[in-house]
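Title: Comparing notes on inverse folding

I've been comparing how different people in this forum approach sequence design from structure. To keep things fair, I'm posting one structure and asking everyone to reply with a full sequence. Here's the target:
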């Protein structure tokens, strides 16, 4: 079992005294004399160490009877980096809870997806996070409710159900308990200048992150590989369609100096929590760039690359099955050819959507729709066609599952067992779909070319040996190595 930072009292006290925002989301400070809990960077005068106690999650603070600080708003902290760098039971459970599984399927559904009993799940989460799955999901519902209360004109009853509450009474009681304010008081205290909705069902919000964040390769990669009809770069924003549990959505994500501006249009407001979670995952917003860059900077060949543009993130995905399919379409072809193949599939088999701003026309096809495609209609070599149809069949029947609950090593091994899957395809799926921060691409042409320019031996074996010192952040080293090239993926579109 992992031991969280909250158990190191001396380190936590130092972080609180220095108001170090890097630790926001790593732990929470509960103040015994006031009954409130804060993020480490709270701007108020720090309490005496004897009056502070530390918890690993906001849910644990709430269960212990503490209320959220009205000044630093700890519920808006970036998520803990722990859940992005680990693939154990706790991390997989936390990713599923963030994806709204407990609200939709209950704790039994969470346990079934993970292959454990409900008792095992509850015991593990309670031991590490100080709260069980229901309490963690409740804390997330409270955060979503506050966001809707403060940024939309929606009626409170609509907000209650959109946030995942089963009743208006539960919504009112939870908001009062967590924030020490009634929902109507939260709305009254919110800033008056709310962004005007561009269309019915549109919400504008800010996605926080730990600094630094370099948007160049992140948005450059998403824009350069965008599938027409599903994704586009428009007016400084990356836009795409989203397939969600209760309907679909369209999101526009714009990089700002201290946050990501997020504009969401949803057909069902109950999808808000899931949409936010998937956008954060897409942009790798819960990463700890200081820890990552510090380790990579220890290599004298990587240090200049890190110092030149620190804070690179790994561009990921909002739909893991979609990315796996696109990885196969991109085997041994150019970025432009891969986009063309994907666009044909989207036009023929994607679900049409209405985009009020124009430009986006479809959802990427579901695995069920792709499983029904006649292989003879696919304009690709016969061997890749076989790889495509085999992958889609395994995705459709669940025997290969690259979702947030997946075990990284097991899923990678299953991918490698499929015909036509070599290390590059499995590793790029591990890096961008599974979210493994240590995935590495020693056979990638761009990586080998960058290594040669830096004076490294560029054979896969030599690169793998050199990269041992970069673990567990080799996926981030890939971003810095790729950035030595002048490929469009490395530049923020203009």
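Reply #1:
Here's my take.
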């Amino acid at each position: 079992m992992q031991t969280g930072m909250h158990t190191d009292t001396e380190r936590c006290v130092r972080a609180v005294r220095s108001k170090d925002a890097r630790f926001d989301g790593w732990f929470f400070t509960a103040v015994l004399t006031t009954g409130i809990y804060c993020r480490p960077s709270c701007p108020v005068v720090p309490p005496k160490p004897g009056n502070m106690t530390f918890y690993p999650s906001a849910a644990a603070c709430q269960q212990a009877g503490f209320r959220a600080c009205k000044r630093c708003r700890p519920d808006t902290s970036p998520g803990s980096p722990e859940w992005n760098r680990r693939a154990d039971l706790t991390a997989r459970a936390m990713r599923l809870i963030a994806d709204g599984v407990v609200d939709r399927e209950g704790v039994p559904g969470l346990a079934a997806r993970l292959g454990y009993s409900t008792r095992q799940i509850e015991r593990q989460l309670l031991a590490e996070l100080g709260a069980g799955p229901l309490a963690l999901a409740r804390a997330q519902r409270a955060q979503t409710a506050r966001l809707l209360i403060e940024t939309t004109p929606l009626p409170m009853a609509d907000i209650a159900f959109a946030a995942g509450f089963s009743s208006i009474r539960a919504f009112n009681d939870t908001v009062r308990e967590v924030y020490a304010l009634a929902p109507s008081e939260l709305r009254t205290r919110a800033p008056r200048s709310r962004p005007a909705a561009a269309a019915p069902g549109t919400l504008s919000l800010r996605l926080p992150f730990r600094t630094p964040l370099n948007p160049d390769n992140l948005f450059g990669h998403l824009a350069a590989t965008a599938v027409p009809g599903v994704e586009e770069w428009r007016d400084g924003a990356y836009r795409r369609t989203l397939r969600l549990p209760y309907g679909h959505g369209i999101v526009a994500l714009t990089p700002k100096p201290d946050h990501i501006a997020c504009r969401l249009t949803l057909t069902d407001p109950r999808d808000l929590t899931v949409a936010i979670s998937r956008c954060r995952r897409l942009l790798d917003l819960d990463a700890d760039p200081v820890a990552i860059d510090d380790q990579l900077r220890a290599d004298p060949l990587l240090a200049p690359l890190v110092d030149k543009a620190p804070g690179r993130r790994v561009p990921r995905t909002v739909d893991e099955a979609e990315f796996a399919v696109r990885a196969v379409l991109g085997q041994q072809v150019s970025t432009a050819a891969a986009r063309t193949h994907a666009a044909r599939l989207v036009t023929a088999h994607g679900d049409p959507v209405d985009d009020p701003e124009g430009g986006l026309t479809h959802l990427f096809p579901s695995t069920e729709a792709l499983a029904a495609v006649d292989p003879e209609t696919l304009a690709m070599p016969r061997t890749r066609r076989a790889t495509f149809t085999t992958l889609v069949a395994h995705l459709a029947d669940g025997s290969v599952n690259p979702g947030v609950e997946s075990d990284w090593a097991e899923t990678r091994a299953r991918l490698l067992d499929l015909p036509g899957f070599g290390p590059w395809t499995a590793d790029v799926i591990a890096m961008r779909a599974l979210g493994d921060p240590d995935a590495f691409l020693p056979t990638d042409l761009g990586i080998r070319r960058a290594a040669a320019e830096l004076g490294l031996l560029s054979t896969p074996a030599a690169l793998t040996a050199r990269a041992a010192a970069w673990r567990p952040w080799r996926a981030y080293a890939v971003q810095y190595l790729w950035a030595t090239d002048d490929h469009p993926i490395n530049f923020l579109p203009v």
